[in-house]
Amino acid sequence: MRTRRMFLIGMLCGVLTAAAFTYAFALPANSNYWRMEIWKRGGAAWTMDRNGHFGWKWLVEPMDTSRQKRGSMPSSQINSGAKQL
Q1: d(CA 19, CA 10)
Q2: 20 vs 53: which has the higher pLDDT
Q3: CB–CB of 43/37 below 8 Å?
Q4: Do the bridges between strand 54-58 and strand 44-48 make them parallel or antiparallel, or are there none, so unpaired?
Q5: Within 10 Å of residue 38's Cβ, how many Cβ atoms?
Q6: CB of 46 within 8 A of CB of 39?
Q7: pTM (2 decimals)?
């Protein structure tokens, strides 16, 4: 009985954590307040089709951070601490 109660308490904590995460991060990302902030900074635009439906269009491509090259230092700066005798 005790293990079942601990399991249910753990499940309840997990559900509450997921709900708090959704409320804090996912819902504000879908609100028009943040879309208006992006629109004011020139990153997106509001669109409307012929039937009067509003839409959302990004004007800039998202940054792809996976293709960035790692920086390397010239060999003269790497061995600057070593002294030649």
Answers
A1: 14
A2: 20
A3: no
A4: antiparallel
A5: 15
A6: yes
A7: 0.39
Give dist(CA 63, CA 46) in Å, integer: 21
Hey, what are 61's tokens?
């491509």
Record the tokens describing residue 40, joined without a space. Answer: 């004011």
Domain assignment present for 55: no
Domain membership flag for residue 29: yes
pLDDT tens digit sequence for 48-84 = 888 888 787 877 776 665 665 666 655 555 555 555 5
Q: What is the mean pLDDT of the chain?
A: 76
Number of domains in the chain: 1
C-alpha atoms less than 13 angstroms from C-alpha of 33 in its C-beta half-sphere = 4
Q: Which two tokens stand for residue 15?
A: 């559900």
Domain that holds residue 28: 1-50
